[in-house]
Specification:
The chain is of the alpha/beta class and 210 residues long. It has seven helices and six strands. It has a six-stranded mixed β-sheet with strand order 3-2-4-1-5-6. β5 and β6 form a beta hairpin. The chain starts with a strand and ends in a 17-residue tail after the last strand.
Length: 210
């Protein structure tokens, strides 16, 4: 039997709306984020889910609690978002003003750029891949949900595809990505799906000034 992994990005926060880097900072959901999570709850209410895991940040825990109400949710610190170092707490415009050279390098080549005082994408990839593989191996033939962050999901998708396109694979808030592991091979069945959010505004994903 195949093991199914439901990868869910947390719902919207006020910092997402402001295009502010969250990283390790512990930000809660906003009203829109809670509405998004309720929509995904309705979508998944008939899905058999054997175990739910979450990043230990409020925005992920709250999202998981709404979608999987009544489940025992296990928090995994290694599923946190990337630590963005000197970018944390700043908006994209503030970063472009304060650290233009570093920001341009980060945008143009994120896998080769380490933000001062932050994590590299290689470090993020290693901790995320280790955590998710451990979860998958614990639940052979079962369906497992993991609620985490955009950078976490993008990093794992890049790992599966053996690619380095970090920006392309960052999912929307409260999106659903479905992976299937069978015969030691991982297949992407659904990527960054937000069809359940019809009628709810989706935060813009913007990384550089046009």
């Amino acid at each position: 039997m195949a093991t199914k992994l439901l990868l869910i990005r947390h719902g919207s926060t006020d910092w997402n709306v402001l295009q502010r880097y969250c990283g390790f900072v512990d930000i809660a959901l906003n009203k829109r984020g809670r509405a998004q999570a309720r929509r995904l709850h309705r979508r998944l209410k008939d899905e058999t889910v054997h175990k739910v895991y979450s990043s230990d940040r409020k925005r992920a825990i709250e999202t998981a609690g709404i979608i999987f109400k009544g489940y025992d949710i296990e928090e995994v610190p290694d599923l946190r978002e990337m630590h963005f170092g000197i970018f944390e707490g700043l908006t994209y415009k503030q970063i472009m003003k304060k650290f233009p050279d570093t920001y341009k390098k980060w945008i143009d080549n994120p896998f080769e750029t380490v933000i001062p005082s932050g994590e590299s994408l290689d470090i993020l990839r290693k901790r995320v891949t280790k955590a998710l593989k451990k979860i998958i191996l614990k639940h052979p033939g079962q369906t497992v949900a993991v609620v985490c962050h955009g950078g976490v999901i993008s990093t794992f998708i890049n790992h599966i595809l053996k690619s380095n396109d970090f920006w392309k694979h960052i999912p929307q808030s409260a999106s659903l990505t479905i992976l299937e592991l069978k015969d030691k091979k991982i297949k992407i069945n659904l990527l960054n799906d937000v069809s359940h959010l019809s009628g709810i505004k989706i935060d813009a994903v913007k990384f550089k000034k046009n």
